[in-house]
Specification:
Elements (H helix, E strand, L loop, with lengths): L10 H4 L3 H27 L15 H10 L4 E3 L2 H10 L13 E3 L1 H21 L4 E4 L3 E2 L4 E2 L6 E4 L8 H14 L6 H18 L1
Antiparallel strand pairs: 1-2, 3-6, 4-5
Helix pairs in contact: 2-5, 5-6
Length: 202
C-alpha cells in the first residue's frame, strides 16, 4: 500500500484524508526499526565505513553524511512528470522558468527516507520533548494544509514541527546539484536543534 520511495513534495500527501494520514503514520512507525537496521548494515558494508559509530549522536551524522553523498543518483523526468512540473511551476513559454529536468531515483528516495528516520531519531534523543507524530496541521485561518501535511514529523510543545525526511531529501537534491556536501546534514541538524531549544525554553 505504501512505499519507502516517496517524495515529500508529492501531491499524494496533500490529498490524503485524515484516516489515510493515520494509516501512513502507523505504517511508517512499524517499518522504522527495520529500516534503521537496513541503513546501518548498508553503511557498514560500504568500503571505508565499516567503523562508523552508530550511536545516534550528532557526531555520527558527519560520517553518515559522507556516506550519503556517495549514494545520490538521479534520473530524467518522464514526460508526464515534466508536464506536472511545468504546471506547478506555472511554466510560460514566453517567460520560461528554469528547473531541473531530473529527480532522485527510487532507490535514492528510499535511502533518503531511511536517512530521515535516523536523523529523526538523533534529533529525538537530543530533544526528548519532541515525538514522532502525523502532521495534520493547517496554516492560519484558511486552514490550508501544511507543506508537511500527511507525513510523519517530530513535534513538541511550543515548537514548530520538523520533517526529518524532508530535511534529508533537501540535502540529497543539494548534493545532486553540487550545491551541498553530506557534511551539511550535521550543520542543519545543529541549526534545527538550536531553534527548537530556544523556542521550547521561552
Amino acid at each position: 500500500m505504501f512505499t519507502l520511495s516517496y517524495n515529500v513534495n508529492s501531491k499524494v500527501h496533500r490529498v490524503r484524508e485524515k484516516k489515510e494520514v493515520d494509516a501512513f503514520f502507523s505504517w511508517f512507525m512499524s517499518v522504522l526499526p527495520g529500516c534503521l537496521e537496513e541503513l546501518i548494515a548498508s553503511v557498514k558494508e560500504t568500503e571505508g565505513f565499516a567503523d562508523w559509530q552508530t550511536d545516534y549522536t550528532p557526531g555520527s551524522l558527519l560520517r553518515l553524511g559522507d556516506w550519503y553523498e556517495t549514494q545520490i543518483k538521479t534520473r530524467p523526468y518522464t514526460s508526464e512528470e515534466m508536464e506536472y512540473m511545468k504546471h506547478i511551476m506555472r511554466f510560460d513559454e514566453d517567460r520560461p522558468i528554469e528547473f531541473d529536468p531530473w529527480t532522485l531515483t527510487s532507490d535514492t528516495l528510499a535511502t533518503s527516507v531511511k536517512m530521515g528516520m535516523y536523523y529523526g531519531e538523533v534529533f529525538r534523543r537530543r530533544l526528548p520533548f519532541m515525538e514522532w507524530k502525523p502532521c495534520k496541521l493547517g496554516n492560519g485561518k484558511s486552514k490550508k494544509p501544511n507543506v508537511d501535511y500527511g507525513q510523519p514529523v517530530l513535534d513538541g510543545p511550543k515548537v514548530i514541527h520538523l520533517n526529518p525526511v524532508s530535511v534529508c531529501q533537501s540535502v540529497a537534491f543539494g548534493i545532486a546539484r553540487g550545491h551541498k556536501s553530506g557534511q551539511y546534514l550535521h550543520e542543519v541538524f545543529e541549526n534545527n536543534v538550536k531553534l527548537r531549544e530556544n523556542m521550547h525554553n521561552k
